[in-house]
Amino acid sequence: MSTHLLDTSIGRPAAQVPVGLHTVADDGSTRLVGGGVTDNDGRVATLADGALAPGTFRLVYDTVGYFTAVHRKLFYPRIIVEVYLDGARAHYHVPVLASTYSYSTYLGS
């Protein structure tokens, strides 16, 4: 699994943003299973070692430091994206387009 974080308000990748990957159990509890820090291109190429079993996962982008440093404004201290991986793909890529006051995401390739 990989991710990409783009700052759409300035048209640039969001670098040095910590990203945590958590499994989500049926009762809503979570467990950290991977993560990384976005590189200069806003990417974390590998969020976890090995294949991920089908299930629900939560990506947590710790954006407080990034938005405070780059924009001197903060509305989303964290961006949380929850996805269900059905196991139909060999690789899942989750891009996030973010600005100070909005974000969106999609299943990438």
TrEMBL record:
EC number(s) from the headed UniProt entry: 3.5.2.17
Residues spanning the signal sequence: none
First-tier enzyme category under EC: hydrolase
Entries under InterPro entries matching the protein: Hydroxyisourate_hydrolase (IPR014306), Transthyretin/HIU_hydrolase_d (IPR023416), Transthyretin/HIU_hydrolase_sf (IPR036817)
Name of protein: 5-hydroxyisourate hydrolase
Function: Catalyzes the hydrolysis of 5-hydroxyisourate (HIU) to 2-oxo-4-hydroxy-4-carboxy-5-ureidoimidazoline (OHCU).
Alphabetical list of PANTHER family matching this protein: 5-HYDROXYISOURATE HYDROLASE, URICASE AND TRANSTHYRETIN-RELATED
Keyword annotations from UniProtKB, A to Z: Hydrolase, Purine metabolism
Taxonomic superkingdom: Bacteria
Species the sequence originates in: Nakamurella alba
GO BP term, example: purine nucleobase metabolic process
Record-stated family: Belongs to the transthyretin family. 5-hydroxyisourate hydrolase subfamily.
One GO MF term: hydroxyisourate hydrolase activity
The keyword Transferase appears for this protein: no
Catalytic reactions on record: 5-hydroxyisourate + H2O = 5-hydroxy-2-oxo-4-ureido-2,5-dihydro-1H-imidazole-5-carboxylate + H(+)
NCBIfam families named in the record: hdxy_isourate
Keyword Magnesium: no
Family matches, as Pfam families: Transthyretin
Occurrences of domain Transthyretin/hydroxyisourate hydrolase (ranges): 1-108
Assembly and oligomerization: Homotetramer.
